[in-house]
Amino acid sequence: MVQVQEMNEADIEAVSTIRVRGWQAAYVGIVPQSYLDAMTVECDAGQRRQRFSQPGRTSRDLVALGDRGPVGWICFGPCRSEMPGLERVGEVYALYISPGLIGQGIGRILLSEAHAHMKAQGFETSALWVLCDNQRARCFYERAGYQTDGAAQDDVYDGITLTELRYQRVL
After folding, report:
1. pLDDT digits (tens, 9 = 90+) for 95-116
2. Could you write out the DSSP letters of every residue in the chain?
3. pTM score, two decimals?
4. Residue 142 and residue 136: Cα distance in Å, rounded?
5. Interhelix angle for 41-52 vs 12-26, to 10°?
6. Can you tell me the distance from the alpha carbon of 12 to that of 14, in angstroms, rounded to the nearest whole number?
7. Is 141 within 8 Å of 164 (Cβ atoms)?
8. pLDDT class for 81, splitting at 50, 70, 90?
9. Between 20 and 30 A from 67 (CA), which of 40, 86, 104, 150?
10. What is the spatial distance between Cα 34 and Cα 29, in angstroms, rounded to a whole number?
């Protein structure tokens, strides 16, 4: 199976590949194709290196390692939304698995590890945002105990407005 560990700088290129290929696979027909086509691993890796080296960074990154390196990645930390009791709410910022390995339990393992880390940090609840039209992700998170809480936000991708729904679950 996979082993989960803290992401390090040597994992950045692989994580960027997982994220970009994940977007390009998961969001076909949801996010404008022009936006997906413009995504590059190099650009993502450059941005990730900058964020990864920021002093005082509060996010945490875990990778799932397979036989040949990272095959999945999750990023989480304090909740960025306005919510009552915010100091006790963590947030899953991103979770991506190599597209060819989706459905093998890697996402469930990473999510479980992130939940354990958040709980150990004193968070009582986990929140996350999912594109409204991403049915596969919504089903995945619902099976993991998340429920929509009524909050929604819009993001614009190449001039197209897409709605995200906030999900929460008790840790």
Report:
1. 999 999 999 999 999 999 999 9
2. --EEEE--GGGHHHHHHHHHHHHHHHTTTTS-HHHHHH--HHHHHHHHHHHHT-TT---EEEEEEETTEEEEEEEEEE--S--TTGGGEEEEEEEEE-GGGTTSSHHHHHHHHHHHHHHHTT--EEEEEEETT-HHHHHHHHHTT-EEEEEEEEEEETTEEEEEEEEEEE-
3. 0.93
4. 10
5. 130
6. 6
7. no
8. confident
9. 40
10. 11
* Residue labelled with tokens 């022009």: 34
Q: Taking all residues of the chain, what is their mean pLDDT, rounded to a whole number?
A: 95
**Averaged pLDDT, 105-133:** 97
Q: Which structural domains are found in the chain, ordered by start?
A: 3-129 (3.40.630.30)
Query: In the predicted model, what is the mean pLDDT of residues 70-97?
Result: 88
Pull the structure tokens for residue 71. 């095959």
